[in-house]
Amino acid sequence: MKLIPSLVSISMLLMPTAALAEQGFDVIVLGALGGIQDGNLSSYLIRPHGDRNAIACDAGSLVNGLKVAQDKGVFGDVKVPEGSPDSVVGHVLKNDLKGYLISHAHLDHVQGLVIASPDDSDKTIYSLPSVSAEIEQNYFNWKAWPNMLDRGQQPQLKKYHLEDLKPGKAKELTGTKMTVTPFPLNHGGAESTAFLIESGDDAILCFGDTGPDEVQKASNMQDIWKAVADKVKQRKLKAIILEVSYTSDRSDHLLFGHLTPKWVHKTLHALDQEVGGNALKGLPVVVSHIKYPLTDEQPQEAIRKELEAGNDLGVQFVIPEQGALYHFQ
Ligand SMILES: [Zn+2]
Ligand SMILES: [Zn+2]
């Protein structure tokens, strides 16, 4: 069996000394896959390195992801205050995790948050207005679930403040040192979101589900690459969390708003061009949302091979393990 280290430190190559003042981000993988099995669905806990105050980018799996991380020793240094009834997992959920960035309202990105909500602490959910409306109307409506929000169906339990984000506008993440800037994505016609999370000069980009611009007949990905090109050039962007749902043999009309290794190469080339060429060497790209199929053969290895085979940009592809802590600096 392969030993999976609980802490993986990933430094970008060619880091200029000017960038050394910041220390990047810790990313704990609460959920790595995109279905169909529950328990390991899209969710990344992100915090500035050396800081406990974190945000979750999507929450398909939440408490189960924290438990897997706890079992891997990731929370070995967490001290639950004396007199607190909480377990380490409970303490991290209620005290360290300060809010949620929800890319879109599909179940594989929100169900962990919904089912944990009765025992969660008061927090903010940050999303684009169309996503907020779906969270309010489809989940916290007193039919699917009690209304934990501060809007929508009465009575409002007001555990979660639902904060509408404006595309391209930075917003402070309450209780953390980070800000978030959302960018809309086209996910097979549904609006999804990529979140640019910044701490000081450092940035990390977490994508929700998205189709390729060419297939969606849209320019969402290209617009994001334009927005982050300078940060890539200056090596301030420490990692990209990007969805890859299927292997490249999946035909375009069956993508349903998702990416394959072929399309990832294409869009990363578009980013490279935007930056001026030869700009992505060593940049970590975390491959999220691989679909778990009901077959004996799992696609992780095939996807890894396809990504590496076409990796002429020298990107550092990371196939994440649930519960692992990665340090991107
Ligand atoms: Zn999804
Ligand atoms: Zn989706």
Question: Please, could you describe this protein's structure?
Answer:
The protein is α/β, with parallel strands linked by helices and 329 residues long. Helix content is 25%, strand content 25%. It is built from eight helices and 15 strands. The protein has an eight-stranded mixed β-sheet with strand order 1-15-2-3-4-5-6-7. β10 and β11 form a beta hairpin. The longest helix is centred in the C-terminal third of the chain and has 15 residues. The N terminus is likely disordered. The site of one zinc ion has 7 residues, from α3.
**Biggest sheet record:** 8 strands, mixed
Alpha-carbon distance between the termini?
Answer: 29 Å
Mean pLDDT: 94
| Percentage of residues in strands | 15-25%
If classified by CATH, what would the architecture be?
4-Layer Sandwich
Provide the succession of SSEs: EEEEHHEHEHEEEEEHHEHEHEE
State the CATH class.
Answer: Alpha Beta
Reading side by side through the largest sheet, how are the strands ordered?
1-15-2-3-4-5-6-7
Task: Work out the count of structural domains.
Answer: 1
CATH superfamily: Ribonuclease Z/Hydroxyacylglutathione hydrolase-like
Alpha-beta content class: alpha/beta
Name the shape in a single word.
Answer: globular
Q: How many runs of DSSP E, i.e. beta strands?
A: 15
User: What molecules are bound to this protein?
Assistant: zinc ion
- How many helices? The count is 8
Tell me the Rg in angstroms.
19 Å
| CATH topology (fold) name | Metallo-beta-lactamase, Chain A
Q: pLDDT under 50 segments (min length 5)?
A: 1-6, 12-21
